[in-house]
Amino acid sequence: MRRAAVALAAFACACAAAALLLAGRSDEPRPRPGAPPPRGAPRATPKPGVDRRGPIGAALVRRTQLRERPGGRVVRALGKRTGYGSARVLWVVARRGPWLAVVSQYVPNSRAGWIPADSATLLFEPYTLHVDLSERKLVVRREGRAVRRVTVAVGRPGTSTPTGRFAVTDLLRVGGGGHGAYGCCALALTGRQPNVPQGWSGGDRIAIHGTTNETTLGTAASSGCVRAADRDMRWLLARIPLGAPVRIRA
User: Fold this and answer.
1) What is the C-alpha separation between 102 and 239, in angstroms, rounded?
2) pTM of the complete model
3) Cα three-residue angle 108-240-186, rounded to 5 degrees
4) Nearest-angstrom CA–CA distance, 122 and 176
5) 91: exposed, middle or buried (Cβ count in 10 Å: 0-12, 13-18, 19+)
6) pLDDT of 53 above 90
7) Would you tell me how many other CB atoms lie within 10 Å of the CB of residue 231?
8) How far is CA 82 from CA 4, 61, 104, 209, 230, in A?
9) Rounded CA separation 146/104 (Å)
10) How far is residue 13's CA from residue 21's CA, in Å, rounded to a whole number?
11) Are 233 and 217 in contact (CB under 8 A)?
């Protein structure tokens, strides 16, 4: 798979809090001019239907419409790729006849929108990510079994990390050789920060990203994103597929 490679300037960053708030004023962020577009691709096994062994992702095979409910109001037209050039893979949380309920950044946190089932190929998602804000821990599970435990930094009081169910939308490498405030890389999430810092106008998307200041790990120090050591972020980028479920609890 070719991972996303974007410059630090492609991110909308939350001031000195070192939280990565992806997607500036546009809901579809774009890499900086001249940067090669990232081409994230799903790493999962195609399945003919929703597999009861674990979570399912829906990789779009054509442009489609995200709706509030089956056959309901259109929320957003979705292309096959995200603004960062990754294949668009949505976490499927339910199925109703010819409709799939999916987690997307275009519906409120933890809620689902609906797409036609025939607009996507279904993929088995072996990995799930679980963030415990009180413990400041990220646990990675593969088919239900914990395979890695990571100490993380989370949102500080006033800009706490939102809780609920989210999914990975993009796997991104940050420009600057890993020497910037956001470390080597990031997993962009569908989640949005409802408590954007006062005066900040750069966007409200959250992510799991690296850091050059590992002394903050295990503390509440960000504006809503989850920070991890670069070594852990590289491990995640090598394994976590697009559409992987992320559950964050208080």
Assistant:
1) 22
2) 0.82
3) 65
4) 36
5) buried
6) no
7) 12
8) 11, 13, 11, 18, 24
9) 25
10) 5
11) no
- Which pairs with CB-CB distance under 8 Å and at least 24 residues apart come from 23-26? 23/83, 23/105, 23/203, 23/204, 23/205, 24/202, 24/203, 25/201, 25/202, 25/203, 26/83
Give, rounded to a whole angstrom, the gap between the first and last alpha carbons of the chain: 34
**Rg for the chain (alpha carbons), in Å?**
17
pLDDT above 90 for 228: yes
DSSP string, 11-30: S-EEGGGTEE--S-SSSS--
All domains of the chain in start order, with CATH: 4-33+127-249 (2.40.440.10), 45-124 (2.30.30.40)
142 pLDDT more than 60: yes
Q: Is 205 a residue whose pLDDT tops 60? A: yes
DSSP 201: -
What is d(CA 13, CA 187) in angstroms, rounded to the nearest whole number?
A: 14
Phi-psi region of 99 (alpha: psi -120 to 50; beta: other; left: phi over 0): beta
Pull the structure tokens for residue 50: 């929703």
**What is the Cα–Cα distance from 85 to 82, expressed in whole angstroms?**
5
Structure tokens at 105: 């950044």
pLDDT band per the 50, 70, 90 thresholds, residue 11:
very low
Indicate if the pLDDT at residue 45 is higher than 60: no
Amino acid at 55: P
| pLDDT 10s digits, 76-96 | 999 999 999 999 999 999 999
In the chain, how long is the greatest CA-to-CA distance?
50
The yes-or-no verdict on residue 19 having pLDDT over 90 is: no
Residue 102: C-alpha distances to residues 4, 34, 165, 213 (Å) = 23, 33, 11, 35
